[in-house]
Amino acid sequence: MTRNIISVDLDSCIGCHSCAVVCKQENGVGLGTYYNKVLTVGPSGTFPDLEMYYLPVACQHCDNPECVSVCPTGASYKREDGVVLVDHSKCIGCQYCVMACPYGVRTYDESRDKGVIEKCTMCAHLIDKGEKPACVKHCPGQARLFGDLDDPESPPSKMRATKKVHKLTDVGNHPGVEYGLDKFTWKGGE
Amino acid sequence: MEVQWPLLVFSVLLGITSGSFIFLAIGELTGKFKEVRFTGALIALVCLAIGGCVSVLHMGHPERALHLLGNLGSGLSKELFAVAVMGIVAIVYLVLARKDYPGASKVFGVIGGVVGIVLSPIAGASYLIAARPAWDSIALPLMYLGAGLALGFTLMAALVLLKGKASEEGGFALKLALAGVVIMAVTTVAYVIWIAIAPYQAPSRSIERLLSGDLALMFWAGVVVVGIVVPVALTVLACVKATRGEGGSGIANPKSLSTYLFVSFACTAVGAVAIRMIMYAVGTSVEQLIYK
Amino acid sequence: MSLKMSRRGFLKASAVASASTLLLGSASAAAFAEDEGAANTSADDVQKIPSACRQCYGRCALFGHVKDGRLVKIEGNPDLFSEGTLCSRAFAIPQEIYNPLRVRYPQKRVGEKGSGQWKRITWEEAYEEAAEQFTRIGEEHGWHTIAHQYGTGRDMLQFQAINKLWLELGSTATFGVGNLCWVGSYFTSQRLYGDETQYTGWDGNNTDCILIWCRQERSRGYYDWLTVKRAQERGAKVICVDPRFTCTASKADLWLPIRPGSDMALVLAFINEIIHSDKCAEDFARFYTNAPFFIDEENTGYQLRQSMLEEGGSDELYPAWDEVHDQLIYWSGDWQNKQELGGPKAFQWLDAEGNIVADAKPALSGSREINGKTYRTSWDILVEHVTPWTIERAAEFCELPEDKIREAIQIYIDASPAACFCRGQKVEFSINTSGISQAFTIMMALAGNFDTKGGQNIGREPATGYDSFMFDVVPNQQGRMGKRRLETAKNIKKLSVCQNTGYQQILVADDATGELQETTQNSGGQVIYGQQGGFGAATTKAMAQGDPFQIYGYWQQTSEPILSIEGGHEIVEGFKNLDFFVNVDIYMTPSGELADIILPAAHPNEVDRVEWAHSGHGYPTSHTYLIRQPFHAPLGEAKDDMDICFEFAKYMDVDMFWKDKYEFFDYMVKGPETLPAELSCASFEDFRERISVTGVQMSDVRGAPKYETGFMRKTSDFRPGFNTMFRGNKMGSVYRFPGTTLPDGTQIPAHPQSDNGKMEMWSEDLLLYGNGPLPLYIEPPITPLARPDLLDEYPYTLITGGRSHAFFHTEYRNSPWMREVHMFPTVDINPATAAEHGIDQDDWVWIETYVDRIRQRANLTEAIKPGMIHVEHDWWFPEREATDDLHGAFDSNCNVLFENNGPYDPAVGTDNYGGLCKIYKAEEGAPDNICMNEEDLRIFLPLSAETIASDGQDDGVSQVTVREGVQS
């Protein structure tokens, strides 16, 4: 099986927002819409004993995506290779998937293809050509790692083997993205 | 999340449909409420139709509704299915109620009641989403059902009284209405308790927002006073009056009692809107990372 | 990769056709407008043009995807130093090129200054009027009454063209800009040893320790972070010195949250510990620096010369004591053989008879009596100076725990000679910028990190050997310096705006006691970039107050001094006084609105350049030239800044020496005859084909530091030692110090020659510029220590040095994507401090100093110490109209919080950019008429090709706005 994912090495991420902006270019994402956003976690503690890391968030391409199970039309679906996508031709814009997503990474975009749901596509149009997603290709910290979690040689698998990895809160959806963080304490739920 | 008005209005109207049909079904089983069958079913159908139309406003591409068969397992598909069945049953029942086919009418009335019982909970069940802890409890669909019972029963009972049936039928209708508002009160409180005890507590979905935070006015005034205390009080009052008569005369004026129930219905509706607005407000997902 | 690219001919041919065919041909007009993704550009009809990014100093390699003559996508080029990575700013390039606020045709102001009323004119009309006006001003008032200015904005080659044009015309004054960044360090290390290693040249690839001083990983040249993190993964330790918990601080192994402005105390402690450790590079000091030289402390204050000891003695002979033969020996600095002490004797120790003492071992330490007078070595003076600067004292000055300082110094010393250092510009914003740069240089040198693996590459080694300075050096070497320029140079003391900046009161820490003492400092005249008179405050005073003389004319190219330096209001006053002002820029800007004529500049990705990374960056980044070539011809009638200079030079009869930019590019990429063939390009066109050239590190090639193998010498004599011929003036035309009288009446005699091949640690040159010969601890003028009287009203320490990852100084406030990730000017404040004033997250607050107040939006963060405030710099609001406070140039512009009356850095004129402030909630909220949300930012979306083609800007640039009631 293939489980493609973009994992993030938070120790390498410098919070520069390159991923968020290149995504707009690559996917023609409108103003106010984000497939991908970079949050700052912290600094926590008291000056000068501080911890801080940046947390880039996008669709987690869950193993058990609630957005797919609630979608009445099958527009939201998970591909064989693990990528969760929205087929805009089937999407009726009911927004139940927006409600079902635990992370608030889907949005109802009226600005572009009016009335459908937008979210990270893992740049499926690029990975299908054998390229890396745009955010991975351009990441200045080389913190974004694309590949197949079932392939032990893939960058995400290698990170998992060498770093402490964390996931966003799992309410049964089993998020796919792994966040590597050794230097500081993970502040999210597991 | 923001209040989803089309969905909110849809769910309230659906509650009326649901409660009305249950009321009519009870009437069919007990051989009562003949006079309101047609009007009641018509109101229920109109509510269903308006609700259905309003809910379509929520969608970006209703014209792609054909795709709705794409995932029958989804809550929304079930909801749609239930609405469709309810609609068909309602239309058939309406026709039957117009003519006089007691047997068929009874069958469809009961079917309507059964569909009515599941309709509201099915609509509420769409919100059973693990990502939004304040929704993820059976208390929510039960609350929807409770509201539907109160709405439908008070409205139908009011109609019954309006027809001048104060005595036997009216008394029974009033008892049903009372049962409806009490169930509504209990299920609403149960849902509020769920908000308080739901997992993944966070300030955005905390009970404090209701009790003393930004939602306090809506909660105390809208839900508790207008939505629970007033309907229950009015319905009890109507029951008391129906039993004891005006000023202890033993004779009650059914029309004035119907006013009590109409007001009770209206207050229940306001309360239902208020609790749903609160439900959306506290319906934040476990981690609101990009969109709030 | 085979890429048949647009050539020079393309530009020439298409310049005519540009507006019509190139732009109208585009079907998908709104590249990066909301309704269009760039994703679906198929390979067939898309040209992929390799080029370089100019959105910050990093110069990352990228490709522009061009479809139907329009740039539709930016992509990283994985083959060069940036490894295919790009930061967010690169993706704003199309938004910058097709921005609604872009000036595409020459404009002449038709309303009052600042009215925003313009009319399109032709280039010829613009050039003719400018030539006439500047000539009139030059002839009536003198050519020095025309100021010129270039920003950090575009590139070094363009700077050369502007500089040459205006120096030849006899202009002297500029607002400086460079003295807020880099120039302080560049100037200083040039004077100490003839080259630089401060921002650049750190060998992160082989290091065991990286000391990062006030530099952010995500401000510019982000690929440096890859070097840093790989070093960390190898086990190298990263030390970050910064008052704030920046991204770099969070990544570092050790963070020293230093008190702003106290850096010198910490560097002196580093030097002190290094000197007293067994790692101290004493042999380097002995044989390659002036450490063994005796100093004439009692009389001239200069390094002792034989001429000062005896009648008829040489001023090219520097006495020292030979430990081997116990005798006085003399270092011959006469490499030019002017006094017959050159040839084989140059850069040798000679005995009293003039014989070479091959095995001499000059004593670093020990006073000697010569002719009845006792002289100390410069080493002993240095050691005496730094020894009181203990870790304990540094801890007190810097408000740091002693153990953290000790740990940092120990890491650095332990890792040396494989320890490297790099710095940011924040240390630069001080009145002691040249002093701190001197201290850093001494620290690196004495730790033994010069030209070592993992240390510092101490020489700028351009890919082909020729860098941008050759633009001016070559004509000067050939005697093609214009008459007016020569005249101006000779009379510079009279013609410089700096002539009245002589003495200033500063607070200097007494070495022995550590107490701050008020001291009078002598200003050296702020010589920058070959002209005297280059700093903002002095030029502002000249324009606004006629002090020391009135400036009447002004040529500004890609700069915005109202925002980037202190005293913005007074600069506006000065601009209003001008008779004639030409602004060359890409956009309408606050100062541009006060100009008479605006000339439309091409975007950096619409022109040809030889490009290279401008800061940070070890090998191979530091040794790479890469192509920056156009994605298409400039929009409208915009022109390359360099071309504008060459064209206007013709109107002004200026001899630019080079026929055009390409002649110089050809020269530059070809390199000297000695350059290995594989590094030499036949021409710029050859270079275009090659995309990049990466040179070599001579220390690798020769297996020894460059100062041992003669590669620090720019004289091609390949003598071991340093190149100091550029002392006094970088361009080789040396203005020696004519002598002066100190405030206390002390006579300082004229300065003798000092180009002697030695690195100076105790610096005679910096002495001449007023710093004193050694780096002094100077307390910034507005701190709790310096101004306790202000503390009651302005209790908080205010700093301004942070850099945003979304902007580059004043740039990109008109980019919808950059503003989307960073919408508002943001002030960092500790939650505890904020709570005292009822300030919540995202509140708009006033930040007020005794000079002025500004508004920014509060970010409550533990990243900053309680009682400290950090505001962002260079904010303006292009969405506001010219008549709306000059595009909102003052609401959030932090530089108006500081006065421009000195003191300044005596050598380079840098002002003080930190102070004391109070902070309180702005009840009125955000400034009026600014973009408040993503929806508002739509006004900045790129124009479609049709819109661009249909708008000839006959009445100026259409202002976009979010002001209520105004249709944008």
Give structural notes.
The complex is a heterotrimer of chains A (190), B (292) and C (968). Chain A has six helices and ten strands. By secondary structure, chain A is α+β, with helices and mostly antiparallel strands. The longest helix of chain A has 10 residues, at 18-27. With 292 residues, chain B is an all-alpha fold. The longest helix of chain B is centred in the middle third of the chain and has 30 residues, at 168-197. The mean pLDDT of chain B is 91. With 968 residues, chain C is an alpha+beta fold. In chain C, the strands form ten sheets. Chain C has a six-stranded mixed sheet, covered by helices on one side. Chain C has a six-stranded mixed barrel with strand order 30-34-31-33-32-35. Helix content of chain C is 27%, strand content 16%. Chains A and C meet through helix 1, strand 2 and strand 3 of A and strand 3, helix 6, helix 7 and helix 27 of C. Chain A: Residues 4-34, 50-81, 82-111 form the 4Fe-4S ferredoxin-type domain. Chain A: InterPro entries: 4Fe4S_Fe-S-bd, 4Fe4S_Fe_S_CS, ET_IronSulfur_Cluster-Binding. Chain A: Pfam families: Fer4_11, Fer4_4. Chain A: This is 4Fe-4S ferredoxin.
Instruction: Give the percentage of residues in beta strands of chain A.
Output: 25-35%
Shape of chain A: globular
Q: Level of helix content of chain C?
A: 25-40%
Arithmetic mean of pLDDT of chain C: 90
Briefly note the CATH topology name of chain A: Alpha-Beta Plaits
- Measured between the Cα atoms of the first and last residue of chain A, the distance is 25 Å
**Biggest beta-sheet profile of chain A:** 4 strands, mixed
Shape of chain C: globular
Strand order of the largest sheet of chain C: 5-4-23-22-21-6
> What CATH architecture label of the domain at 107-176 and 472-605 and 637-677 in chain C applies?
3-Layer(aba) Sandwich
Widest sheet: strand ordering of chain A = 8-1-10-9
Strand content of chain C: 15-25%
Structural class of chain A: alpha+beta
CATH-scheme architecture of chain A = 2-Layer Sandwich
Radius of gyration of chain A: 16 Å
- Count of distinct strands of chain C: 35
- Report Rg of chain C: 28 Å
- Most residues in contact, chain pair and counts: A-C, 42 and 53 residues
Low-confidence stretches of chain C: 1-41, 727-736
Domain 4Fe-4S Mo/W bis-MGD-type (chain C): 46-101
Pfam family, one (chain C): Molybdop_Fe4S4
Organism (chain C): Raoultibacter timonensis
Signal peptide (chain C): 1-33
